[in-house]
Amino acid sequence: MGQSEASGRRDTQALLPVTQAMELRNRDYHVERPLMNQQQLEELGHRTSATRTYQWRTWFQCSRARARALLFQYVPVLSWLPRYPLRDWLLGDLLAGLSVAIMQLPQGLAYALLAGLPPVFGLYSSFYPVFVYFLFGTSRHISVGTFAVMSVMVGSVTESLAPDENFLQGVNATVDEVARDHFRVQLASTLSVLVGLFQVGLGLVRFGFVVTYLSEPLVRGYTTAASVQVFVSQLKYVFGLQLSSRSGPLSLIYTVLEVCSLLPQSVVGAVVTALVSGVVLVLLKLLNDKLHRYLPMPIPGELLTLIGATGISYGVGLKSRFGVDVVGDIPAGLVPPAAPSPQLFASLVGYAFTIAVVGFAIAISLGKIFALRHGYRVDSNKELVALGLSNLIGGIFQCFPVSCSMSRSLVQEGSGGNTQVAGAVSSLFILIIIVKLGELFRDLPKAVLAAAIIVNLKGMLKQFTDIPSLWKSNRMDLLIWLVTFVATILLNLDIGLAIAVVFSLLLVVFRTQLPRYSVLGQVPDTDIYQDVAEYSEAREVPGVKVFRSSATLYFANAELYSDALKKRCGVDVDHLISKKKKWLRKQEQKLKRMQKTLQKQIAASEGTSVSVQVNTNIRDMESNNVDDSKARQASAGKELEDTTGSGQEDAKAANGSTLKALGLPQPHFHSLVLDLGALSFVDTVCIKSLKNIFRDFREIEVEVYMAACHAPVVSQLEAGHFFDASITKQHLFASVHDAVLFALQHPRSSPASPVLTTKL
């Protein structure tokens, strides 16, 4: 019956004219309730302590159901593959897998060069990790595999720990490329294992939230700087130069200077090859952008360019006739697994953690974008484990660390990919190429791969447009972007990331140290209080000062909060307190001088010493066996008692004197309300600061109240022993309006006064 009436009312409201519906929405509301402090609110609402849930206890429970749940949790393919709709999704996943594989082939070859490794290891890294992610990943649309940023980070490691200078041989000081490449592969695979261990470990302890410390401006500034690093690293292949291996701070600057100095030695054939390949790739991409609505799958520009360049190189003899460097022999088949080298762990652990965090940040950010677009959820901890297993198992099979590629992910989504099956299909195509077709690309010029890498940097280099947009929207985010970019360019990828994270965290602390402090006024005819500097109609309540901070109060800004409060109140609190204490000290010293003078008078009249205690009254004086002086002692004692008593009354009057009686200026308000709605937690420094505020303002005859504390904050105040005989929960009110009304009705009175019923 109730449901039918409710539905009838909804139908009636739906038939109302628009103007009447707006009037209903805009109608004033009236709430009549008693004025409430915290103690009354807890009694009315029956506040109880929140029950704690110890989730870690379930981790050690062992049962068949829990084992099955864990298996399905960390091997998601077991849960979604049996329900896979073949008729609806298989064709799209097959086309998407083929499209991604066509892109993966040239990118794998090119990004292996970027990592300082033979090109075939880029193909290995495009097969093993992709298939592992198919089993353990939760994102249905990202394309895991080689990525420019990850490759350049790996390249900085291999070139710093295995530079060409360490493998010179013979009289002509030629580089032993076989030994160099073997050691670099060992470095990269061991690095991949360490990266995988970090990611799996962090995922198992549910540490996926660590990526939240990498804000979007930080990630975009970092990837933009990394794209500049990638661009500079490919110049040696574009111009056919032999450059020195550099790493560490300012290595990018030195590399650019060296390229500029060696430009006269450029190989013309390599420059022409790179230029022509780049123009062809750009034209094909523009053609894809215009015809993507009419094409079932994008035109494979990179693959067509690689095939054409390989054929031309083989037919014309670019290496022998024009000195253009080529890929060389690509062994067919797969390499056997190899254990990582434990001796390298100590030198690689720092790089591994940085690469693990960056790789996961890129993957989870893209994964969440596609998940929101298609209406499913990506678990950051499961993604961390899946990506870690991909790198861990891939490292055992001679792969270097991988993440996901935005360009391939967009192609996978746009060509009809629906699930991780598209990734499995692309990995199988790469396997066929590794086993049968890889050796056909031995005459592929490295300049063509460099051109493909540079053209694919377009998306990341376009992030420079963030600078004007952030200048208009948020200059703090712009500062993070610029610091990240400059630090990464000048100090290399690992140190640059560390500086960027530290700077962004310090900036958060700095912003909480300097929040916006406001004096609030009441918006007319409402119970709403807003900043009088922003709302011209908001008026301060006479006799009551309402103060609010936009940030939580803790050890880093507690002193600044107190200083801002005293400044905004318009009263020099510290000056008044010091003047009052100075006057009281003068009165105390005057009383002591009077007491000493009186003691001397008594001693002179008696000819003996009299012990007198002057704090509260005169002790009984001993006579030193002079019987005939008792009468005079009694008379002098009476005189001293009268004088001391009058002095004590003066001191008592001084201690209870008002500022007006002391001739000091009085505050123009009698009550102070602290709006603590912004507090999310309190610490010991915050509690001490609040107590000092109560003490100082009471010294100048201003009563202090608090308002709008959240329940967790109240619990922390209780645990910190904030409430005592002088500060009770009756000083804490449910809202600012409650506190203001109470202060108006009870200026400088006890908070235990009767409750006032008010209409809001």
Question: Main attributes?
Answer:
two-stranded antiparallel ribbon; 12 strands; mainly alpha; disordered N terminus; Transcription Regulator spoIIAA; 31 helices; 6% strand
Account of the protein in words:
The longest helix is centred in the middle third of the chain and has 39 residues, at 475-513. Residues 1-16, 609-655 and 749-760 have low confidence and may be disordered. The protein folds into 2 domains: 79-509, no CATH class; 514-580 and 659-748, 2-Layer Sandwich (Transcription Regulator spoIIAA). The strands form 4 sheets. A 6-stranded mixed beta sheet has the order 7-6-8-9-10-11. The chain contains 31 helices and 12 strands. It is elongated and about 125 Å long. With 760 residues, the protein is mainly α. Helix 7 crosses helix 22 (446-456). This is Solute carrier family 26 member 6 isoform X4. The chain crosses the membrane at residues 89-105, 111-136, 190-214, 267-287, 299-317, 344-372, 384-403, 415-435, 479-510. GO terms for molecular function: secondary active sulfate transmembrane transporter activity.
Itemize the secondary structure elements and their pairings.
Layout: H1 2-15, H2 18-26, E1 32-34, H3 38-45, H4 56-59, H5 64-74, H6 77-80, H7 86-114, H8 120-125, H9 128-136, E2 143-145, H10 148-161, E3 168-169, E4 174-175, H11 177-204, H12 216-233, H13 235-239, H14 251-262, H15 268-291, H16 301-316, H17 318-322, H18 345-374, H19 380-396, E5 403-405, H20 406-414, H21 421-437, H22 446-456, H23 458-461, H24 466-473, H25 475-513, E6 517-522, E7 529-531, E8 544-549, H26 558-568, H27 573-606, H28 630-655, E9 671-675, H29 684-699, E10 703-707, H30 711-719, E11 732-733, H31 736-745, E12 757-759
Parallel strand pairs: 8-9, 9-10, 10-11
Antiparallel strand pairs: 1-12, 2-5, 3-4, 6-7, 6-8
Helix pairs in contact: 7-10, 7-16, 7-20, 7-21, 7-22, 9-19, 9-21, 10-11, 10-12, 10-18, 11-18, 11-19, 12-25, 15-16, 15-22, 18-19, 24-25, 27-28
